[in-house]
Write a structure and sequence with these properties.
alpha+beta; 2 domains; two-stranded antiparallel sheet; 4 helices; 4 strands
Length: 81
């Protein structure tokens, strides 16, 4: 739910080059089930979405921090279909 500038600073620091979602109102975060209403925190997540819009893989928390995991997931699914 960070804004553009916070996301940009974080991605620059981490060396991430893929687009990040900025969800200031939290609508998407809640729909994807990664907002914890008790702590008011959002889990770090990477969603792999196919051409039809179906979520085919989810990486959460520490797994989502490493962009090589997202690349590997894309490769796995590319090989399947």
């Amino acid at each position: 739910m960070d804004g553009f500038f916070a996301n940009k600073a974080w991605t620059d620091q981490q060396g991430i080059t893929f687009p990040m979602l900025s969800d200031l109102g939290g609508d998407t975060t809640r729909r994807y089930g990664i907002f914890n209403s008790q702590t008011k925190m959002v889990r770090r997540a990477t969603f792999l979405i196919d051409k039809t819009g179906k979520v085919i893989e989810i990486q959460l928390d520490k797994e989502a921090l490493d962009p090589t995991n997202a690349v590997a997931a894309c490769e796995r699914h590319k090989l399947k279909g």
